[in-house]
Amino acid sequence: MFEFEILKKSKKSRARAGLLKTAHGVIETPAMVPVATQGAIKTLTAEQVKAAGSHILICNTYHLHLRPGEKVIKSAGGLHKFMNWRAPLMTDSGGFQVFSLGFGKDLGVSKIIKGEIKRSIGRNEQPKSLVITDKGVTFRSHLDGKKIFLDPKESIRIQRDLGADIIFAFDECPPPHADRYYVRESVERTHRWAKVCLKYRNSKQALYGIVQGGRFKDLRVESARFIGSLPFDGFGIGGELGGSVSAMKKMLAWVTDELPKDKPRHMLGTGHLQDIPAIIAAGADTFDSVVPTHFGRHGTAFTSSGRLNISNAKFISDKDSLDKKCGCDVCVNYSRSYISHLFRAREITGMQLLTMHNLYFFNKFVENIREKIKKGKF
Amino acid sequence: MFEFEILKKSKKSRARAGLLKTAHGVIETPAMVPVATQGAIKTLTAEQVKAAGSHILICNTYHLHLRPGEKVIKSAGGLHKFMNWRAPLMTDSGGFQVFSLGFGKDLGVSKIIKGEIKRSIGRNEQPKSLVITDKGVTFRSHLDGKKIFLDPKESIRIQRDLGADIIFAFDECPPPHADRYYVRESVERTHRWAKVCLKYRNSKQALYGIVQGGRFKDLRVESARFIGSLPFDGFGIGGELGGSVSAMKKMLAWVTDELPKDKPRHMLGTGHLQDIPAIIAAGADTFDSVVPTHFGRHGTAFTSSGRLNISNAKFISDKDSLDKKCGCDVCVNYSRSYISHLFRAREITGMQLLTMHNLYFFNKFVENIREKIKKGKF
Q1: Which CATH superfamily is domain B2-92+152-289 in?
Q2: Is the separation of the CB atoms in A160 and A67 below 8 Å?
């Protein structure tokens, strides 16, 4: 069972408020989707994630395929039961991890992103640990170096066994700064693979196609038109975002203008707080983000008056809550002083409290935008 | 406000069931007191600790004195408010940590305990990083090497600022395997210090005196008589336990037979599951234990059919709960398979789930004994 109902469209932007209906419940959109990479939101129980106001999570097909393996999860009755998450779930296709692990390791893409090396990645450049052909991708497990082959059919099979409500087509995610020739070849491959994924879909899971095209307008538009013409239940927007909010906003607009208006759109792997209004304004209904959880584990609290580095000495005697305007369990019960102490004393409970607060804060942030859209005020 | 009411005494043993009444609530005894060393049960929030059935915690004066310092905690409104624990709290005197850190480091006591070195610690042996005189102890912080002086007056002052319901007198905890001459001198010092602690007591906190005397019957009896004759609100039993359950049982009996019958007794720093019935049978009303939390973080689950090493490969596809007979949130909602996966994938959530379960399991274990005592069946 999968339905998307649009309740209200913004007049001033591409934003819309809607309902995403799945067999495991209905979620209101726009919504942030926290990332439960290995089947858990790091440092939290499922109960705590729910209490923080999250209603949908995304898990990582690549990681779960390697460990514990989809066989274990299928035999447990699927991912929902396995991880005690009785609400909607997504799984990504595994493509992003395969490519990012390969390119990050062998071609130093992380250095290119950071600006330490200035160059593009050319069409014939391939990381050593990754062999990409039209058939699929051969790569090595980051856990034990074992050779693994993934292709569209295999990705859909794994995702079927995992059993999420929404799954994604297997795409090639080209490295950021890939040149036009590289991206063109890659987009064409992603398009061929999209059709294979549709062939192996099943009626129990919604399947989202993925639009690629990097930072090139013509390729993005072409990809959105092609993927948008296929009978997917929704659409993911992946790949390079452009490096700035305005570039991302433009890129998203190229794509959403071409996609079917009545189907849901998911923005893959983004969600810095300051980008969220732009993501929603450009017409994304959901987006997955590691920001609240990742920053929480590393001592950053998001608040209505900006970020706090909670380990900072000035917080050790600060009796206020993290955010006076926040109504989360953490802000009601704990002080900056205590959480600062926990971080300085390297107590895991500190990471937990910040993760809970950050999730709640991001969820509220998105909820406020949602309410504004509904009232025609966004 | 502090009262101890004995509801029922066992006829076959020294065990009793009672109520410990403090300004922050009443707890039923016998009770296990989990250890929140730095003001948090590791990996859990206060809400999760309560949900696991714990009603009283003990914090560590030495650790909290060093970080964040009692000044911060006092200004936060005391330890209860600081750590969001609105139920009874204990703090130890700091003595144990001072001595164990010094002896462990400089005299290799840990090797003596493990049997790697066979010898006693003599009267004139002192660790380099620790100077013990009749006045008090000078030692170095394990965090930054700063010199710190602690004496009975200072320990009571720090504990007053921390603000727990039950505090302990500052004692000297001699190293295990200390010889008779060493222990005799040390016991006498502890007795002198006990009187100083009473001088600085306050009416808001219950003060427990500590019985020492190592493995020597005459010294234990002497210490119990002396400390028992002083107007403490309750009594701690500290120091060497004898190395076996039967030795510990004997030692405890020497002591509890000498202590006032109407006052509560706390067994310091013990609580392996198999020892708990003996501890209670010997007449301890409370005891603090790191066992459920420490083992939980390291992957051991306690169950009605024995211990599980949850990382073991056989659990990865085991769909049962940790313990079929357990009604805790973890056993109701999560499988061995999932928790095993979390440990293998190094997810903190796994440590959290095992800690919750183990606390619940130990609390239930003690509760069962308590109910048996009440029914005259222990």
Answers
A1: Queuine tRNA-ribosyltransferase-like (3.20.20.105)
A2: no
